[in-house]
Specification:
This protein is mainly alpha-helical. Helix content is 78%, strand content 0%. It has 5 helices and no strands. The longest helix is centred in the N-terminal third of the chain and has 63 residues. The radius of gyration is 59 Å and the shape is rod-shaped.
Length: 178
């Protein structure tokens, strides 16, 4: 064990001071490096946050502007489907036309409603007219039946209190001179 003790002594005397110096340098370098790295990371993070804030502010300013970008004079199918036609500027420029179209739509709906109301009334009156025609036809046929000569004769025979009789001679025409 003496050999091992001697080795440790030699190692303690010679190697340790070198290692301690190196370790101290490495430690100071690593601490300084870590601090610098942390500072660099913090600076990078701050710059990224500032860039994001700038982008967000620009986007908010673009959205908050009341004036809109001027539209091109030609409307394409994609602009109409995409909703560009409903921008405030287009609506402001064409407000008179829009109001006129709305007025015509209201008149159209009112006219259609009135026409349907009149058609319903006409159908109702037509059904009443058909009913009245059938009643008139029925009453006319009953009257025709009751005023037939044969029917009247039967009534006269059944009553027996009547002195009227059917004549045996045919009727003749009396001519009156003027």
């Amino acid at each position: 064990m003496k050999k091992e003790d001697k080795k440790e002594e030699i190692a303690d005397n010679t190697v340790l001071p070198i290692k301690e110096e190196q370790l101290a340098e490495v430690h100071t370098l690593s601490v300084e490096g870590k601090e610098e790295a942390k500072e660099d990371e913090e600076k990078e993070a701050e710059s990224e946050v500032e860039e994001r804030i700038d982008r967000i502010e620009r986007a908010l300013q673009d959205q908050a502007q009341e004036g809109e970008k001027p539209q091109s004079s030609s409307f394409t199918f994609t602009k109409i489907i995409g909703g560009d036609i409903l921008s405030a500027q287009v609506l402001r420029n064409n407000i008179g036309l829009i109001l006129l179209i709305v007025l015509f739509i209201i008149i159209y709906i009112t006219n259609r409603y009135n026409a349907q109301k009149y058609l319903i009334e006409i159908d109702k009156l037509n059904t009443e007219l058909e009913d009245a025609k059938y009643r008139a036809l029925s009453s006319s046929s009953q009257l025709t039946e009751k005023t037939r000569e044969s029917h009247i004769l039967e009534l006269l025979k059944n009553n027996k209190d009547s002195v009227l009789k059917i004549s045996d001679r045919p009727p003749y025409i009396i001519n009156v001179p003027e």
